[in-house]
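Q: How would the structure tokens look for this protein?
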Amino acid sequence: MPLRHQFISFLRDKYSGLSHQDLEAITAEHLLSPFKIELPKTVLSQAQEFVGLAYAYSHTDQARQRTQKELQKKGLKAQSNASLFMSYDFHLGEDGVLKLIEINTNAAFYFLGSELYEFRKLPQPVSPDPVGDLFKDIENEFNLLGYKAPSQMKLQIVDESPTLQRLYLEFLVAKNWFESRGHHTEICDRTAATNCDFIYNRSTDFFFEEPASKGLRDLYNQGMTLISPQPAEYFALADKERMIEWQSTPLKKYLPPAFLLSPETVERAWAERKNLFFKPTRAFGSKMTYKGASIARKAFESMDLNGGAMAQGLVPAPEIERQTPKGPQKFKYDLRIYAYQNEVRSVIARVYQGQVTNLKTEWGGFCPVLFKEL
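A: Here is the predicted structure in token form.
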């Protein structure tokens, strides 16, 4: 039986609410890789150091004031809670040092990643129970907002057209996990967001600026509903300008070189393009990202030179070679480090061939990571 079908059977056995769902139809054929990645424990130590430092630098008094000022310009109140489900995506350099690719506040696969380790009968790489930790983290989120977490929450999992999302399976697993613990949970489009106890926000409209996000914007500004992840934390950590700002801090060793595109830097960027990626400062994944070696002049000239785009040094993805039914093949991988505030919670790898992770590679997909004394 293919790995995907085995995983679906495992989830159905664990969560009765999934027994009648057509999970095969919504699960990518290459969601899971049969491989595992083994790395030295020092890599995990690096990740923890980066997460701790990044959180500290982004939450100084000066940084908080900057966040408040930015959100005020957008008509938002900077709420005091942090963000659940943060992730830091890294490549591992040939020198054994992690290099940051990007930070996400809407990171996927936290629930499914935890289930994957159990399904593969492998130990969790960091916390013994990263999903169980969620209760403590949610309680802390409520405390930061000034409320006590209800013993039975009413919550919503919110996204744009959630049933059409590539990882809708994760929404279903999250819903069943919350409901198994007595919390009334619904999955809904962001336009249907309503006043409830907790909204697990998967929308990539990070500042609730689109008309469809008006309900989320109002609820966020009212501060009565815990919304996580949330705009203040996005700006504090995941806005890509942080990668430029941190170039002068101890975080630099984990960062590729980066600079904003502007009239003053555009000639340099074009001259050095073969060693650069170009991307919007506020986007996610590979959306509107160009590899400098192949960017057309027209596309380059269309990039925002007023703070809306940046150049980032190339960090080649590490490679592994694995035996497949078609013989030995080489695969690239990246590491997704999940964290809450300044603590790492879990790690997963994404295995692929080609330029970007896309869940289309045969024998590619998400896979476990084991940290050992190598």
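The CA atoms of residues 191 and 212 lie 5 Å apart.

The longest strand covers residues 327-340.

Upvote if useful.
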